[in-house]
Amino acid sequence: MLVADNGAVHYFRVDWFTPDGLRTWGDGRTFILGTKGYIEIRKFVNVGTEDEIGNHVYLVNEEGEFHYAVEGQVGYPFFGQLILDCVNRSEYAMTQAHAFKAAELSILAELNAEKIK
Fold first, then answer.
1. Is the separation of the CB atoms in 51 and 44 below 8 Å?
2. Is the pLDDT of residue 66 over 90?
3. How many angstroms separate the CA atoms of 117 and 109, rounded?
4. Which of 5, 7, 14, 44 has its CA 20 to 30 A from that of 72?
5. Three-state DSSP class for 36?
6. What's the CA gap between 65 and 38, in Å, rounded?
7. CA–CA separation, 71 vs 67, rounded Å?
8. 3-state DSSP: the chain helix, strand, coil percent, rounded to 5?
9. What value does the CA radius of gyration of the chain take, rounded to a whole number of Å?
């Protein structure tokens, strides 16, 4: 969790477990909540439907409920590039310095974290 300067609380969560009943490995959902609505992104699977693929965006706001099927319209090239970096020992997706800095910052954030009461 992160508390911003304006008092807004941000919550981040990563789960590494996949239930046996899920038809794909991993779920990959993102939720963005605001005071006037929210957005949900379903990357790999549209849970509870017969849709074969994910890549759905749901938007709910003051004007209504909206669904966008975005298969083939968006992508995540970073993950494929990162795998190639690992295999080829290259730095196309991310430099080694960037990766070390990200690790350093995550450790510093944990060491300096305060409990939210």
1. no
2. yes
3. 18
4. 14
5. coil
6. 10
7. 12
8. 25, 25, 50
9. 18
Q: Is-above-0.70 flag for pTM?
A: no
| Cβ-Cβ contacts under 8 Å for 4 (sequence gap 6 or more) | 10
Q: What is the pLDDT of residues 78-104, one digit of tens each?
A: 888 999 999 999 999 999 999 999 999
The angle at the Cα of 96, spanning 93 to 97, to the nearest 5 degrees, equals 115
Q: Are 44 and 54 in contact (CB under 8 A)?
A: yes
Chain centroid offset of residue 12 CA: 9
Q: What single-letter DSSP state applies at residue 85? A: H
CA distance 25 to 29: 13
pLDDT on residue 39: 94
Q: How far apart are CA 79 and CA 99, in angstroms?
A: 14
Separation of alpha carbons 47 and 49, rounded Å: 6
> How many C-beta atoms lie closer than 10 Å to residue 43's C-beta?
19
Residue 96 — φ and ψ, nearest 5°?
-60, -40
